[in-house]
């Protein structure tokens, strides 16, 4: 063992990042110079443009997104913005009957008809609130002839289209300037440019469907065209609106350069100025803007990189982390179901493009912590803090108690959108969301974040669980009415009178986290209170099948959710490190889930399962699950399509709508195979497939503010390097000595073991 101590931590980190960045750039350049269909290529490559909107080439900067595809004879840039929402209130959710108690009474009567009428029916009748698209820019490319190649370079976040006549088109959504950019070179003639507004008013002869944008009731905005510019303004519900400005120029006869900007008015994330004025702040020069844009992405990729012998898995990880960087950005909304790539088909997006907090939103942020993208991860907790007041109001109105729960199906401003009453009104949503405050704190080791945001938020969630629960004669607590996401769909038996393992995991985690946070802040009395609360909740229900849905209620059929196993992953309340009995319980639970068959699974089922398989140290099983996800559930542009697109029996679902949580859970599973630290002990390469003889990673983040790099060669760990950002106690499973070691490190110290 060698320990290198460095006094100037900041300088050392800069040097480290510079060396890693240099290596990364060199290897990246080599891969991009190679043939694009080789396993080392990390981006997207095709010999023609996609002709379906949800297979478009994705570009984004967290607030604005673009999908590049071909519609008819035109090249189309479908535009979206993260805060572009119809936020009209749901009138049914303001009446006196809208309450947890109302549902309780209906369940007691075994008659949910009035609940369905109040909550469920309005969802099938109304299409708002909803995420909405912004429109599209089109270029007439008929004269350019046949396309030679289409490439997304994820390292530079640029899309390049090459025509056989020599024309080249380049596109990117600025990482820092809130503008989209395009450039065509070697043009044989000028290109026609159009703006296609959303179909808020249907043309004659077009039949209106349930999800048609026309059902929102908007009048089409006006498109104003001037020389080399287009302006579009669209009024939305209430005080909200948006505008699009498009400008272009011809520096010479064969070159076209342009920019576009999309802004909103009336949302939390709106700019204080118009799109046109915002554009004046930034350069319109393509090459200058590209240089700044690529610098941001170079920094992004320098924070973490991996190398795997399985190049299919490696490439997919880079694609997922590219989408993460394109979709989650400071001062922008968090990732919703489709992030910044809302449907471009004249309809509202699948499931309204909302924030599904029964798993979709949470899974989307799993990979951010270990991949060392803390700023992008904090976007989620920033939003949860922003909606805190609305969440407390909802808790007071619907549940009738003080504290904090979050609507499971949320709008941009944290209001309840509705859906199946069972899962849209889960009584423990805030418990799973509390986990992300915990992760943000533990991975960053940021005591200020703990004091100012994490503990105040988690404390209110814990207070809610104390207030909503009922205490029996035996001194144990239970929920008056419980659920497990989407188990029994929307039937009356989707509600449980005994607390489910899902709800129990959320509650027990919240109380445990609240106690730990209070201890760290030296709030002795509060810590003792939460620890006592924890003792008043039962243990998890089990039987011969493992962890059950609820007491005396095992999983009985194939299902897409693994929510009854939440205590195992991601919450880590149960772990194989806790002894043989717990290990057998978890193995049996996962095995029973698989025994039910795959007919009820979707894409994210495979990637969530892969995370669990990795925590069981079963790298071969995790690898198999991830390969199935890639080949059966991903579109050509890597988006997660929920159903089995191969029709090979990997699922009974074959439907197409894309959501992104399966993608990000994929990235998390790869990281779980390479590094685990959820127990407080850092383990490198805990779940590699047996056939792998080599792998490596640089600057993965572990709990405690430790940056870990490691090298696996010839079937063995060769070297581990750990940089301590904040200082503190390091617990490391030393693969050379086959034991756990405890080491004290100061801020800036680097530990190297080989």
Describe the protein's architecture and organization.
34% of the residues lie in helices and 23% in strands. With 754 residues, it is α+β, with helices and mostly antiparallel strands. Among the domains are: 2-10 and 691-753, Immunoglobulin-like; 34-85 and 133-302, Distorted Sandwich (Beta-galactosidase, Chain A, domain 5). It has a nine-stranded antiparallel β-sheet with strand order 2-9-10-11-12-17-16-15-14. The protein is globular, with a radius of gyration of 26 Å.
Write a compact overview of the structure shown:
The protein has 754 residues and is of the alpha+beta class.
Keywords:
alpha+beta, 6-stranded antiparallel sheet, 23% strand, Beta-galactosidase, Chain A, domain 5, 754 residues, single chain, Immunoglobulin-like
Explain the layout of strands and helices:
Blueprint: E1 2-4, H1 9-33, E2 44-46, E3 57-60, E4 64-71, E5 74-81, E6 85-86, H2 100-109, H3 113-125, E7 130-131, E8 135-140, E9 147-153, E10 158-163, E11 168-173, E12 180-185, E13 193-196, E14 222-226, E15 229-235, E16 241-252, E17 255-265, H4 275-280, H5 286-302, E18 305-307, H6 311-327, E19 355-356, H7 360-364, H8 366-370, H9 374-386, H10 388-399, E20 409-410, H11 421-424, H12 429-444, H13 447-468, E21 470-471, E22 477-478, E23 482-483, E24 495-496, H14 501-520, H15 524-535, E25 542-543, E26 546-547, H16 580-595, H17 603-615, H18 619-633, E27 640-641, E28 658-659, H19 661-674, E29 675-676, E30 683-684, E31 695-702, E32 706-713, E33 716-724, E34 728-734, E35 739-745, E36 750-753
Antiparallel strand pairs: 1-36, 2-9, 3-4, 4-5, 5-8, 6-7, 8-13, 9-10, 10-11, 11-12, 12-17, 14-15, 15-16, 16-17, 18-31, 19-20, 21-22, 23-24, 25-26, 27-28, 29-30, 31-32, 32-33, 33-36, 34-35
Helix pairs in contact: 1-5, 6-19, 9-12, 12-13, 12-14, 13-14, 14-15, 17-18, 17-19, 18-19
